[in-house]
Write a structure and sequence with these properties.
It contains 11 helices and 12 strands. The protein has 391 residues and is of the alpha/beta class. The protein has a 6-stranded mixed β-sheet with strand order 1-12-2-3-4-5. Helix 1 runs antiparallel to helix 2, helix 1 crosses helix 3 and helix 2 packs across helix 3.
Length: 391
């Protein structure tokens, strides 16, 4: 509880600081007429409050959060991008000022009118760039999913399974602004690929089962020759992991809770394991346990692991995992904030990686979290094509 309160306080303080800087730069510094100054200030305060109200009401007043989300979440992206552009402009100006100081050159006198003109020009440029980026990002986030084919060669994969396809769906985040129609589109595209197996690698929902059951229902239409398998992501725990595990099982998927199954028959087979999310240890009865997940493995068979967060590969590589499939990062979702995500995951953001003897693929995900915005990180449905080196 203390950790949760501390996290909320920290994020709220950071958001307040961002809003205060952007307000100072776009409202106070450009000296708007008094009436517009008051209107803009009130708007900033209301928009600042709309974000925590939306997130806090998600599990208690889903109707309110879904409606308000279409205002609060795009604003969240816009104010973030405004911060980036404005800081870049101000850092550039600071660099010029420092350069003059080092060179001991006297800065030219700037009259107040010219200073005001520059503030308005740079502020207007920042609003234009950030607004255009958010508009384009909303089209990207609500648009067509890119089908990404990834060929993975596994030395232990039998020749009979060469070409085996796994469609990986991750980070759908049903709730707020992602509804049944969006989910149906993802399911229809997946089924058209006729996969041998579907892997759901976590963060499928943002809300309670009773509120999102209808929106989530199309997941039950997923079809694959060898079935649909799932693991938990961190957002399942925020939304009630056990009820969602039960719901997804009811819809026909099999959750791999630190366990392993064999896919195929006899010599024409490989092992598929799944573990709880990295953060699941904070909930009773949950938590990653790779030792249990791989205890029954056959060392002669290829081992594919489903694990929500890419950084789980550090431990997976010590348990003989040949391939790990992960999500969580959304490919950063909104450039340039992806640098923070990349840092948090130890440099593992999107695409293919090699960690020791373990191959890792990180999908950008088929949904989005928070803002319905994706900048330089398109929606992705991943089709993993397993290849045998024995061919």
């Amino acid at each position: 509880m203390i950790a949760t309160i501390a996290r909320i306080a920290l994020s709220s303080s950071l958001s307040a600081a961002i809003h205060a800087y952007v307000w100072w730069r776009l409202v106070r510094r450009v000296r708007l007429p008094r009436r517009w100054h008051i209107v803009a200030t009130i708007a900033f305060v209301l928009l600042f409050l709309s974000v925590p109200i939306t997130t806090a009401s998600r599990n208690h007043y889903p109707g309110l959060s879904s409606t308000l989300g279409w205002v609060a979440m795009p604003w969240m992206a816009l104010v973030g991008l405004l911060l980036v552009v404005l800081v870049a402009i101000d850092v550039g100006r600071l660099a010029i000022w420092l350069g003059r100081k080092v060179a001991k050159r006297r800065a030219p006198d700037v009259d107040p009118e010219r200073r005001l003109f520059l503030a308005r020009i740079t502020g207007g440029a920042a609003v234009t760039v950030a607004s255009a980026s958010v508009a384009r990002g909303m089209i990207e986030a609500r648009g067509t999913h890119e089908i990404v084919d990834v060929e993975i060669r596994l030395a232990k994969l039998p020749r009979a399974l060469d070409g085996f396809t796994i469609v990986q769906l991750s980070d759908l985040h049903v709730g707020l602004t992602i509804d049944r129609a969006f989910v149906q589109r993802v399911v229809d595209q997946t089924n058209r690929l006729a996969p041998d197996l579907v892997a759901l690698t976590g963060d499928l929902v943002d809300g309670k089962v009773e509120d999102l059951r209808d929106d989530f229902a199309p997941i039950g239409q997923l079809r694959a020759k060898h079935g649909v398998f799932a693991v938990t992501g961190n957002h399942e725990y925020y939304s009630g992991a056990d009820p969602w595990i039960a719901e997804l099982r009811r819809l026909g998927a099999r959750y791999l809770r630190n366990e392993l199954v064999t896919i195929g028959d006899g010599a024409a087979s490989f092992d598929l394991a799944g573990v709880d999310d990295h953060g699941g240890k904070g909930w009773a009865g949950h938590g990653e346990d790779l030792a249990s997940a791989t205890a029954a493995r056959d060392p002669s068979r290829a081992l594919v692991l489903l694990a929500h967060q890419p950084r789980q590969v550090r431990r997976a590589s010590k348990h003989g995992v040949d391939l790990q499939l992960s999500g969580h990062t959304h490919g950063g979702q909104i450039w340039p904030w992806h640098y923070i995500v990349k840092l948090q995951q130890g440099g593992l953001l999107a695409g293919r990686y090699q960690y020791g003897d373990t191959q890792l693929y990180v999908t950008r995900g088929c949904g989005y979290w928070g803002p319905p915005v994706r900048v330089l990180a398109p929606l992705e449905i991943t089709r993993v094509i397993l290849r045998s080196t024995q061919v």
